[in-house]
Design brief:
Radius of gyration: 56 Å
Strand content: 5-15%
Largest sheet: 5 strands, mixed
Number of domains: 3
CATH class of the largest domain: Mainly Alpha
Shape: rod-shaped
Number of strands: 7
Length: about 500
């Protein structure tokens, strides 16, 4: 029982630890996923902000700059006024930034083809503008005027390629925006799912802890109730013991007082018969005290694990028969008919004969105690398979069904009143059960109130190799053991 409780506590502790770990792991997953999602969004945003958008801005600005440069150079060719070259010189200052933005796009999904094409076209345009200025500076303005159509063509080709790049940039921006939006949607859904799982997990865990605490409280309450019942039973047992001790002591003490009175008035010889009668009464009550003390001591020894069996191989049929024959004197005095029956004549098993005596005598004592004059007691020995069954059956008052499950309890007694119909503390059957179980056997009771009772002891039919012989093999009718065990059924 202790191991079961300890195992249950360990399992509960392990479950609680696993619950804490699971919640912690789930929380860590939520945190890591949030960090991952944020990093992914930041990466996409950085890609758009640092690479895509600057390239788009530079492309638009550079296209405007090229158109302004073309217009300025055209005006310079016509007027030969270098003030019109200012847009050209300003555009050359931004050209390196444009080339850098094109280089940033080469490792993106926009590809290197379009960026290289723009790069080459820009080089060609810059080279063409430079040649036009040189032609004007060397006095070949007419040749430069003839080349204006070629310059416009180069700018138009650049515009087309630049528009393609800008379209790709817009498409890439939209793709990145969709990625960010999808990532945020997935993040929200997954976080919602993980949050739901976490809430459900917390609920289940809290419910488990609540149920566990409730069960623990219920177990403690049940233990307290059982302890309370045990304390009540123990108090009843103490009251019964006190009664059983006081009754024979009062008889012995009264007899002693009577003897003292006879001694003082010198009437001992005259009251010899009365004197002998009281001596017998004192002896019987001494036997009762001896039985009670023996039962208490042996019961305590069994509980402490100090009770020792002296097993030897004996004919169990003979042992039981001799015990039955030895109590016929007492049953005859009570007007009871005792019968012994068996289905075999001999069966050698390992047992402690003295303990068998006590078991059978205790059961016979109960049968005699609760039987009326003219009733019958049957002692039966049966050998079935590898077991020996010893039963003691009477047709006395019987036991009520609601009391059958308590008659073998250590501190229980069916009749709890101090004016019981028969003597006894209730410890006898508990002791019998404990002794039978020490020998590897079992005992159970069958009864119908008003019809009698039957107690059946089952012992294993095995033998021992090394015997402990502390028994003379015979139970005499005048044996002290019988007088002690049956002391509460005769006077």
């Amino acid at each position: 029982m202790g191991k079961d409780k300890s195992g249950g506590r360990n399992r509960s502790r392990r479950t609680m630890v696993l619950g804490y770990i699971s919640i912690a792991c789930l929380s860590l997953i939520i945190i890591l996923f949030s960090i991952y999602s944020m990093n992914k969004v930041c990466t996409e945003s950085d890609f758009v902000i640092k690479k895509i958008l600057p390239a788009k801005i530079f492309s638009s600005e550079m296209l405007t700059s090229l158109i302004n440069q073309e217009s300025g150079i055209r005006a310079y060719i016509i007027s030969d006024n270098k003030d019109f070259l200012e847009p050209y010189y300003l555009g050359n200052k931004d050209i390196q930034g444009y080339y850098k933005s094109l280089d940033n796009l080469k490792d993106t999904e926009l590809g290197a083809y379009t960026t290289n094409q723009l790069y080459d076209q820009m080089k060609s345009i810059q080279k063409f503008y430079k040649q036009q200025i040189i032609l004007v500076d060397t006095g070949k303005a007419n040749q430069a005027k003839l080349n204006l159509i070629q310059g416009k063509k180069l700018v138009d080709e650049f515009r087309k390629t630049d528009n393609i790049l800008i379209s790709k940039i817009d498409l890439e921006v939209n793709i990145s925006r969709n990625k960010v939006a999808n990532t945020q949607i997935i993040q929200r859904c997954l976080l919602a799912f993980l949050g739901f799982v976490l809430i459900v997990g917390n609920y289940i865990f809290i419910r488990y802890i609540s149920n566990y605490m409730y069960e623990e409280v219920e177990k403690k309450n049940q233990v307290n109730k059982e302890l309370q019942k045990l304390l009540v039973s123990h108090e009843e047992f103490i009251a019964n013991i006190s009664h059983e001790l006081k009754t024979p002591l009062n008889v012995i003490f009264s007899a002693i007082q009577l003897f003292q009175m006879y001694c003082y008035n010198g009437s001992l010889d005259e009251r010899r018969d009365t004197f002998i009668k009281y001596l017998d009464s004192m002896k019987v009550n001494s036997y009762r005290l001896s039985k009670l003390i023996n039962n208490i001591v042996d019961s305590s020894k069994i509980q402490a694990g100090f009770f020792k069996l002296n097993l030897s191989n004996n004919n169990i049929v003979e042992v039981i028969e001799e015990i039955v024959m030895s109590v016929t004197t007492f049953t005859d005095c009570k007007g009871l008919n005792i019968i012994f029956d068996t289905n075999v004549e001999e069966k050698i098993i390992a047992c402690d004969p003295e303990i068998i005596d006590r078991i059978v005598l205790n059961l016979l004592s109960n049968a005699i105690k609760f039987s009326d004059k003219g009733d019958e007691i049957l002692v039966d020995v049966k050998v079935e398979n590898e077991f020996v069954q010893i039963s003691v059956k009477d047709n006395g008052i019987g036991i009520e069904k609601n009391n059958l499950h308590t008659i073998f309890d250590r501190f229980k007694q069916v009749d709890k009143s101090l004016s019981r119909n028969a003597e006894g503390t209730g410890i006898g059957l508990s002791l019998v059960k404990s002794i039978v179980e020490l020998q590897g056997g079992s005992i159970y009771a069958e009864s119908e109130f008003g019809q009698g009772s039957k107690f059946t002891v089952t012992l294993p039919a095995k033998k021992v190799i090394k015997e402990s012989k502390l028994y003379d093999g015979k139970v005499k009718s005048g044996d002290e053991t019988i007088r002690v065990e049956l002391s509460d059924v005769y006077s």
